[in-house]
Design brief:
Elements lengths: L4 E3 L2 E3 L3 E3 L8 H10 L4 E2 L3 E2 H5 L5 H4 L3 H4 L10 H4 L3 H14 L4 E6 L9 H7 L4 E5 L11 H18 L4 E5 L6 H10 L4 E4 L7 E3 L4 E3 L10 H11 L6 E5 L5 H10 L3 E4 L1 H6 L3 H15 L5 H4 L16 H10 L3
Parallel strand pairs: 3-13, 4-6, 5-6, 6-7, 7-8, 8-9, 9-12, 12-13
Antiparallel strand pairs: 1-2, 10-11
Helix pairs in contact: 10-11, 11-13
This protein binds flavin mononucleotide.
Length: 330
């Protein structure tokens, strides 16, 4: 049974990798991830704000996750250690590259056209095999149109694409009126992959202190369903590969994502909860399941439950909404 696959043109030994997170800030964790079988290492992002030094990024504003949930142990870096400056970030890529044999994917995160985009080239020069581009944008200005919001990402992608030769995967938001059309535009600009999806962290309100508060809650498997739907819809429409990120916690989650059309899955919350070696259990579970169900390869399973191939495609469409509402009996 063959677990090997490809993603962004890179040969991978299996379709499971850690998603962008501070887990890889410590080389020990990187080695543990590789030893456990991770297919690639994805760096956390280098943020436009870190480069322009204007302000700290959204992630750095959140509470230290190590204090937010009790399962976290020492493998979770402290938030203040997380926001590497640009030089340390590039050094860390080179260090990781020198210590592992699997592909290393850098991540650049920003929202405007500007000099920070040059760091794509520096990330490539530091040895990254591919780049994730994350335009994590909250459209707070009601005068900015949806088309302008889409153009923001497309323009940044074009600028990054001009400056590097390594493949680019764009980490998308699901909050577009037509996420499929937007993904197709990304595809036609030559992105090698799309990552479904960014998780948007919502502020809460402290009603006693009259303050907006930040808290990082880890995901659970219910968040996967949004990704499953869109992977299934996009599977037959894109040349770009699909990575599912968000809500992958179990072997079953991985199988569902691949059946819907994902080339790879990215795992963060469950690794932060259970540690880097958890990726090994997920991969072993995937191998056993495929063997038990007599698949010859992971590629054979891909897309079998996509919108095009699914026996009842209406589950991905409006009909599902009506059926689900009727499930509730009072
Ligand atoms: C502590 C933490 C840090 C993260 N840092 C980044 C980051 O730097 N860049 C990025 O694109 N995503 C980042 N993410 C988002 C993850 O890569 C992933 O998309 C998200 O957590 C959903 O996956 P999950 O459900 O497996 O956690 C971070 C997530 C967490 C929990």
């Amino acid at each position: 049974m063959e677990l090997a696959t490809t993603y962004l043109g890179l040969p991978l030994k299996n379709p499971v990798m850690p998603g962008a997170s501070p887990l890889v800030d410590q080389l020990d964790n990187v080695r543990r991830l590789e030893d456990a079988g991770a297919a690639a290492i994805v760096m956390h992002s280098l943020f436009e704000e870190q480069i322009t030094k204007d302000q700290l990024a959204e992630f750095a504003h959140t509470e230290n996750p190590a204090e937010s949930f009790s399962e976290a142990t020492s493998y979770f870096p402290r938030m203040e250690d997380y926001a590497f400056g640009p030089d340390r970030y590039l050094e860390q890529i080179s260090r990781i590259k020198a210590s592992v044999d699997i592909p290393v994917i850098g991540s650049l995160n920003g929202i405007s056209l500007g000099g920070w985009i040059d760091h794509a080239r520096l990330i490539e020069q530091a040895g990254a095999d591919a780049l994730e581009l994350n335009v994590y944008y909250v459209a707070t200005d009601p005068d900015e149109s949806g088309i302008a919001v889409e153009k923001r990402t497309l323009d940044i992608l074009e600028a990054v694409k001009e400056s590097i030769t390594i493949p680019i995967a764009v980490k998308l938001s699901p909050f577009f009126s037509s996420p499929g059309h937007f993904a197709k535009q990304i595809d036609s600009l030559g992105a090698a992959g799309v990552i479904l999806y960014n998780r948007f962290y919502q502020p809460d309100i402290d009603i006693e202190e009259l303050e907006a508060t930040h808290r990082l809650d880890l995901s659970n498997s219910t968040e996967l369903r949004l990704r499953l739907r869109w992977a299934a819809i996009l599977h037959s429409h894109l040349k770009a590969d699909i990575a599912v990120s968000g809500g992958v916690h179990t072997t079953e989650d991985i199988i569902k994502a691949i059946m819907c059309g994902a080339n790879v899955v990215q795992v963060v919350s469950s690794l932060l909860k259970y540690g880097p070696s958890h990726i090994g259990s997920l991969i072993a579970g995937l191998r056993h399941w495929l063997e038990d169900h007599e698949y010859e390869s992971v590629d054979q399973m891909r897309g079998s439950m996509s919108l095009k191939n699914c026996p009842d495609p209406s589950v991905f469409e409006r009909a599902n909404y009506l059926r689900v509402l009727q499930l509730w009996k009072v």
